[in-house]
Amino acid sequence: MKLITKTTVATIALLSASAAFAQLAADANGDGVLTIDEVQAVYPDITAESFSTMDLNADGALDEAEVQSAQEAGLMPA
Ligand SMILES: [Ca+2]
Ligand SMILES: [Ca+2]
Question: Rounded to the nearest whole angstrom, what is the distance from the C-alpha of residue 42 to the centroid of ligand 1?
Fold first, then answer.
């Protein structure tokens, strides 16, 4: 029963995960921004070119606002 309960809790957590949670999951080193390596680890289809398009301030990393814009523009899966 304990195992079933844990699995149920984990499933509920996954189902209620927000876009922000997905971003954190991609943030492998936990610094709050996504590098192209971190993005491609989760979304292999995203190219350097589309990463540059998403990197609005061209600092080489995607912050929360840039990720949100990319998702709203359909450049990154939400
Ligand atoms: Ca990071
Ligand atoms: Ca940026």
Answer: 12
Q: If you measure from the C-alpha of residue 13 to the centroid of ligand 2, how many angstroms do you get, rounded to a whole number?
A: 29
Per-residue pLDDT tens digits for 33-56 = 999 999 999 999 999 999 999 999
- Whether the predicted model's global pTM rises above the 0.85 cut: no
Is the Cα torsion angle 27, 77, 19, 6 positive or negative in sign?
A: negative
Domains in the chain, CATH or no CATH each: 18-72 (1.10.238.10)
DSSP lists the bridge partners of residue 24 as: none
pLDDT in tens, 54-70: 999 999 999 999 999 99
